[in-house]
């Protein structure tokens, strides 16, 4: 066992000894006969004889040569506890954890973390900042790993980005005594990603868009673009992960339409990503997104409320059909018996064709089937058919 580990745990257990009693040091028998147990146990002061827990073959030399009167059992128990703790470290059951107090300026944030460091602010970290001040420092350590060959930084943060930002802010704002508490770990990039992801899942302030883009990068960097393998390693539903990766494809120009990237959540974001797959719809959505971005900037500059996320999403999704309200349907088929409109094509794109079958036209089922066939043939002639 390394001497540092032994000294570290011995010091921890020595604190227990000091709080129990100022016992005189017990003498440990280091003869070969005493080494199976490794430690001496003082005899109990009670007059009634106690059964000897040692095997019958153990020689009398296992007893200490001297002990403090009345404190032998206490001292012996403490030494046995120490031996037990050291044995657990040696066996691998217990691992020594290294925690350091670091200057945050010498620590960078790992690029593989989902949280956007640039979007952190005093407002978003206010609760954590107040907690650190009230407690006289950071109590929960971050997880970092050591860097080699970087003259500007010694460590990088794997988990604990907000803690790093908050300590750095406090040191720059009247609290220079605070230091960044961190636990050092040896992790490869894939293990670091999984650790950071587990922490971020419990954080409500990590947006779905941030996580989605983080997953998209990790899929390529750590899992060779194998979705199933990534889902298994992260213990996530393959379907859910697939939707997150679709959200990651939303371009920055569309994200700028929202007041904050945090407004892009999974369910509405997935619908928006699907709409952007249609090339015809994409141009209209991008045009509306630019208009919304201008409105959001104007609202911020004048202190007015920004456009809510629900309204932004509604306008973006409606953009592809906004100019078609007066143009009418793409194709109309009339019932032979009445001459009334029986089948209409409302839209056609990569996601599919939207048909409307009208009531009260006198058309039979066979008539409607013929009308749908005629509509599909007309779309095919226009280059908008189902075979694209």
Secondary structure layout:
Blueprint: H1 3-20, H2 72-91, E1 99-102, E2 107-109, H3 126-135, E3 142-146, E4 155-159, H4 161-172, E5 180-184, H5 189-201, H6 208-221, H7 227-234, H8 238-247, H9 252-255, H10 266-276, H11 279-302, H12 309-322, E6 331-334, E7 341-349, E8 352-357, H13 365-381
Parallel strand pairs: 2-4, 3-5
Antiparallel strand pairs: 1-5, 3-4, 6-7, 7-8
Quick rundown:
With 388 residues, this protein is α/β, with parallel strands linked by helices. Helix content is 45%, strand content 11%.
Structure write-up:
The chain is of the alpha/beta class. The chain has 4 domains: 3-45 and 57-91, no CATH class; 99-199, Conserved hypothetical protein from pyrococcus furiosus pfu- 392566-001, ParB domain; 252-322, no CATH class; 331-381. The protein is 45% helix and 11% strand. It has 13 helices and 8 strands. The protein has helices spanning 3-20, 72-91, 126-135, 161-172, 189-201, 208-221, 227-234, 238-247, 252-255, 266-276, 279-302, 309-322, 365-381, and strands at residues 99-102, 107-109, 142-146, 155-159, 180-184, 331-334, 341-349, 352-357. A 5-stranded mixed sheet has the order 1-5-3-4-2. The longest helix is centred in the C-terminal third of the chain and has 24 residues, at 279-302. The two termini are 69 Å apart. The model is unreliable at 15-47 and 54-71 (pLDDT under 50).
Q: Supply the CATH architecture of the largest domain.
A: Alpha-Beta Complex
Q: Give the overall pLDDT as a whole number.
A: 78
Beta-strand proportion: 5-15%
Major sheet summary line = 5 strands, mixed
User: According to CATH, what is the topology of the largest domain?
Assistant: Conserved hypothetical protein from pyrococcus furiosus pfu- 392566-001, ParB domain
Provide a count of the helices: 13
Order of helices and strands: HHEEHEEHEHHHHHHHHEEEH
Structural class: alpha/beta
InterPro entries: Chromosome_partition/occlusion (IPR050336), ParB/RepB/Spo0J (IPR004437), ParB/Sulfiredoxin_sf (IPR036086), ParB_N (IPR003115), RepB_N (IPR037972), SoPB_HTH (IPR040873)
Family: Belongs to the ParB family.
Protein name: ParB/RepB/Spo0J family partition protein
Biased composition (Pro residues): 44-62
